[in-house]
Amino acid sequence: MNNIDYILKKDDFTKEDLVILLNTNEEDRKKIFEKAAEVKKTYVGNKVYFRGLIEFSNICSKNCYYCGIRAGNNKLVRYFVTEDEVLEAVKYAYNEGYASLVIQSGEQSTKAFTESIYNLLMKINSITDNKMGITLSLGEQSEETYLRWKEAGARRYLLRIETSSRELYSKLHPNDKHHDYDERLNALKLLRKTGYQVGTGVMIGLPFQTVEDLADDLLFFKEFDIDMAGMGPYIEHEDTPLYQYKDQLLPKEERFILSLKMVALLRIMMKDINIAATTAMQTLDKMGREKAIKVGSNVIMPNLTPVKYRENYLLYEDKPCIDEEASECKNCLEARIHIAGDEIGYNEHGDSIHFKNRQ
Ligand code: SAH
Ligand code: SF4
From the CB of residue 80, how many other CB atoms can be counted at a distance below 10 Å? Predict the structure, then answer.
């Protein structure tokens, strides 16, 4: 038995184990992927759940150095999807048997914004008989706002920590209170306190990021006892400050493999959580999402944003599927999931089993 076989037999990995596992070569990483596939089958089964994604607005008050829709990028037309357009997309999703939605947006915390989300949630619930599982991904907000949205029927929240390293976090963001690691961490704690199913995640292959940082990220997820994860490779965007480091990045193929290893290792470590096969995975590899599903992901987010807005929600370069209508997107994803050997959990919420077990 070699070292990798020995480590993979353990129930819990140490940081040293994770560094070894993240550094594996082609032959050894197959063992990680096989083990992760086995764990997935045993603990969450072979169903993949759809979450219809609505990119509600690209207006953002923040200036994260990596992100294409940061406030400082003035090359974009800023938009809000109208309420009618959102409800149209919701009806489509509901009729197609997607039992869940994700509403994502640039970060805004004005009263007008938080109330417009509240009203939208009320309307979505009224036209779908409260049957939709609603996930929000609207950034850092006050406890009061999180509670208000929960009152209107939101159940899950995605807020990536982006990196669990305080030091790296400070290199990826302006140095002010609005972009503070502790504030972000506190927002995650508020989400837990207010009773949401909590999802977080990191970007993989960031400038200055080490394999040790990624090992710490996995341990952070475990320690925080998250219910859901969404991780993907960092992808450079020309109109952002981090673009100047593009020559220091891992080649795209390696960044993709590292992301796949992160998904697989997280599945082994946190057997019953929901893990998304993210769009960024597909950006670096045409079969990226299928590959993620094979090694542990069980959630996928078909894009329901009206096509006319999509070119203005480019968080990173080469984002795929920006010109496909929702129906084409669905057919494409169905085929992709079948290729990966799984089936789709239509009409099921697909809540995090981990969350239920924790209650
Ligand atoms: N404003 C909200 C939600 C929208 S951004 C928030 O920041 O939480 C959603 C995610 O996109 C971010 O959490 C970040 O991890 C990801 N993202 C932004 N820029 C990216 C890039 N260049 N490459 C990969 N992912 C990126
Ligand atoms: Fe805004 Fe989110 Fe992009 Fe940061 S990552 S600039 S908060 S949309």
Answer: 16
Q: What is the pLDDT of residue 329?
A: 74
Measured from the Cβ of residue 191, the count of other Cβ atoms closer than 10 Å reads 24
Compute the C-alpha angle 108/223/133, nearest 5°: 50
**What count of residues does the chain have?**
359
Closest ligand to the CA of 188: 1
Q: Is 56 in the pocket of ligand 1 (CB under 6 A)?
A: no
Residue 37 CB-half CA count within 13 A = 16
Domains held by the chain: number: 1
Specify the residue with its C-alpha closest to ligand 1, atom 24: 234
* E strand or H helix at 307: helix 307-310
Q: Do 280 and 29 touch, CB atoms closer than 8 A?
A: no
To which residue do tokens 């080649």 refer?
251
33 versus 328: which is more confidently predicted?
Answer: 33
Residue at 157: amino acid letter: Y
- CA-nearest residue for atom 6, ligand 2, is 70
Q: Which structural domain, as residue segments, surrounds residue 187? A: 3-358
Domain holding 239: CATH number? Answer: 3.20.20.70
pLDDT digits (tens, 9 = 90+) for 239-248: 999 999 999 9
Indicate yes or no: pTM above 0.70: yes
Q: Find where tokens 């706002």 sit.
A: 145
Name the one residue in this structure whose structure tokens are 């207010």.
Answer: 194
Task: Say how far apart CA 322 and CA 342 lie, in whole Å.
Answer: 25
Among 314, 262, 268, 319, smallest CA distance to 291 is for 262
- Binding site membership of 234 for ligand 1 (Cβ less than 6 Å): yes
Kindly identify the ligand whose nearest atom is closest to the C-alpha of 187.
1
**Residue type at position 79:** Y
- Per DSSP bridges, beta strands 156-158 and 133-137 are parallel
pLDDT of residue 349 exceeding 90, the answer is no
User: Phi, psi (5° rounding) for residue 102?
Assistant: -125, 125
